[in-house]
UniProtKB/TrEMBL annotation:
It is found in: Cytoplasm. Pfam families: ThiG. Homotetramer. Forms heterodimers with either ThiH or ThiS. HAMAP family: ThiG. It catalyses: [ThiS sulfur-carrier protein]-C-terminal-Gly-aminoethanethioate + 2-iminoacetate + 1-deoxy-D-xylulose 5-phosphate = [ThiS sulfur-carrier protein]-C-terminal Gly-Gly + 2-[(2R,5Z)-2-carboxy-4-methylthiazol-5(2H)-ylidene]ethyl phosphate + 2 H2O + H(+). The active site is at residue 97. The lineage of its organism: Bacteria, Bacillati, Actinomycetota, Actinomycetes, Frankiales. Pathway: Cofactor biosynthesis; thiamine diphosphate biosynthesis. Belongs to the ThiG family. Catalyzes the rearrangement of 1-deoxy-D-xylulose 5-phosphate (DXP) to produce the thiazole phosphate moiety of thiamine. Sulfur is provided by the thiocarboxylate moiety of the carrier protein ThiS. In vitro, sulfur can be provided by H(2)S. This is Thiazole synthase. The keyword Metal-binding does not apply. The gene is thiG.
Length: 270
């Protein structure tokens, strides 16, 4: 058993999946199932409450999965809090993925507004999972504010540029007392493995799965990569050697030294 535990709740998958950008709701549903994810995030602004039960995106999220509404589109703390409260009223969950992204070009999270919103939402009884810059000081402040996880970016949302924040993620992991979920920009399964090998507790992937030629297969690939990276981390990695010298994998001296004088091989066929 190696469950991901968030706010006292155990999940047997360390891959969280987003629901945007899929060509069709049916493809999304099949991909969610293929990913093995237990937590699925949905943008509250995409949910049409009047269409629930009539083909809204939420109708295609398998009911056994935990819904993590997000405040995507919010540009300041006030808007994020309003969206979160609407989401809670509509879905009945206290979980919220806090996103405050005022810059339309980078969708970079606003650290000050994110922290402010986190404080307000925690005080209001939410379980807050904040999307944030890869900044160990901010991560500490969010944790102190009562956030249930820290969700630093790997690279810009939707960029598929991989783990550009590797060093900062390592520093965050080293100091965090809550799960660290690397969120955004993971473009290929090996990016997820890399994040997990660094010691991240989980990863969140949306675009790379949704826009793949075969989203269902890509979802499975991310699932396996997440597991592989986690196992690699738990197994304890070897320290990299210097770039200028090899270290033989087989201890040649001991083996050759133990051999007796060469033996004459029998001649076959004449
Ligand atoms: C779906 C979500 O909530 C975001 O965190 C984001 O969209 C994920 O990033 P990628 O789309 O780059 O995977």
């Amino acid at each position: 058993m190696d469950d991901l535990v968030i706010a006292g709740q155990a999940y047997d998958s360390r891959l969280l999946v987003g629901t945007g950008k899929f060509a069709a709701h049916e493809v999304m549903r099949a991909s969610l199932l293929a990913s093995g994810a237990r937590i699925v995030t949905v943008a509250l602004r995409r949910v049409d409450l009047d269409r629930l039960g009539e083909g809204d995106v939420l109708d295609f999220v398998p009911p056994e999965l935990t819904l993590l509404p997000n405040t995507s589109g919010a540009v300041d703390a006030g808007e994020a809090v309003r969206l979160a409260r609407l989401g809670r009223a509509a879905t009945g969950t206290d979980l919220v993925k806090l996103e405050v992204t005022p810059d339309p070009r980078t969708l970079a999270p606003d650290p000050i507004e994110t922290l402010r919103a986190a404080e307000l939402l925690v005080a209001d009884g939410f379980t807050v999972l904040p999307y944030c810059s890869a900044d160990p000081v901010l991560a500490r402040r969010l944790e102190e504010a009562g956030c249930a996880t820290i969700m630093p970016l790997g690279s810009w949302i939707g960029s598929n540029r991989g783990l550009r924040t590797r060093d900062a993620i390592e520093a965050i992991v080293a100091g965090a007392g809550v799960p660290v979920v690397v969120d955004a920009g993971l473009g290929v399964p090996s990016d997820a493995a890399e994040a997990m090998e660094l010691g991240a507790d989980a990863v969140l992937v949306n675009t790379a799965i949704a826009v793949a030629a075969d989203p269902e297969r890509m979802a499975r690939a991310f699932a396996l990569a997440t597991i592989a990276g986690r196992l690699g981390y738990l197994a304890g990695q070897a320290t990299p050697g210097p770039s200028t010298a090899a270290a033989p994998s087989s201890p040649l001296t001991g083996f050759l030294g133990a051999l007796p004088t060469p033996v004459a091989l029998p001649v076959v066929g004449g």
